[in-house]
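Fold it.
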Amino acid sequence: MTAVEIPGSKSITARALFLAAAADGVTTLRRPLSSDDTEGFAQGLDTLGYRIERTAEAWRVEGRPAGPAVPDAEVYCRDGATTARFLPALAAAGRGTFRFDASAQMRRRPVAPLTRALRELGVDLRHEEAEGHHPLTVVADGVRGGELTLDAGQSSQYLTALLLLGPLTRDGLRITVTRLVSAPYVAITLAMMRSFGVEVTRERTAAGEVFEVPAGGYRAADYPIEPDASTASYFFAAAALTGREVTVPGLGRDALQGDLRFVEALRRMGARVDVGPDRTTVAGTGALGGITVNMRDISDTMPTLAAVAPFATGPVRIEDVHNTRVKECDRLEACADNLRAMGVPVATGDDWIEIRPATPRPVEIATRSDHRIVMSFAVTSLRTPGITFDDPGCVRKTFPGFHEAFAQLRSAWGL
């Protein structure tokens, strides 16, 4: 058995930074992820006047329930979707003029459902170039709150940003959600808000799912960050593909992250899976079977499954993953194009991909500067030596030490 220490969750670290910044008191975040995305989020908070003390093991954040400490600021969000979507909502609850811009990659990604909702709540928000995209400016004067309807069918992050904002409004929020993708990420948000003193109620109605968020603010907390389940998927898939065994400590039955459900797809394909109280183990059995799987709620792990799919004994069909087309790149087509370049038969539709058994040949992977494409096809390389990447360094977005950790795994397994 090989134990792999996975860095802290990007999703949890970003939410924790928002909650800590908004809370009354000083919050300690333990084992936060240090990567380009989370460093960008922390830098954004610093630009807005929040005080953060960082060490290797913990970040201490001095909360400001009244909002940013500066009257105006220009925040560069880098490639970070959580930074680009959460920080404008946080700034809106304060007072001042705050401009947000991002990388060319992030500028292409939509933010319109969120900014429409903020405008409905009375926020003075202006898109400077393309409507519904960065750059944008928020002229903040607090948020009254109230009722709104939201389509979160592209990204759950729009809903999360509004849920996080809710306790900072004067009257609270009542959000009716007509469509929702990646629902487990919303469950993460609600559980974390609870840890910072806010209880959100939810109910299903004929109009959609309704979330009631009370006003009143957050209280500071001492908050541990669990390992990143999306990152763990590459190591679990590696074990299933090579017939080895890997254990990830810190991810078990009580994990917040829905992406841990990726191991159930591996189980259905024939791997042995053991999810314990505080760790998860996956062991390969020498063969993987074909599968048809809906990955709507765990779509960040779609590329991981696509990268091992050619080695299955039957077709692998992944369904309901349209939202992967509006991530750092069009991940569905990025997977399909790279697999085809490797000689693998692939068919795609608007929201699905089907991959047939083949023996992939080594190629240079066109990463499209997407960290998940690199890390996924690194798993393929365990059975297809000679694979290279046109931008291997883009893993710094979520796991700067990925290549070193994967090399250690290869060495431990004698590959």
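The two ends are 15 Å apart (CA to CA).
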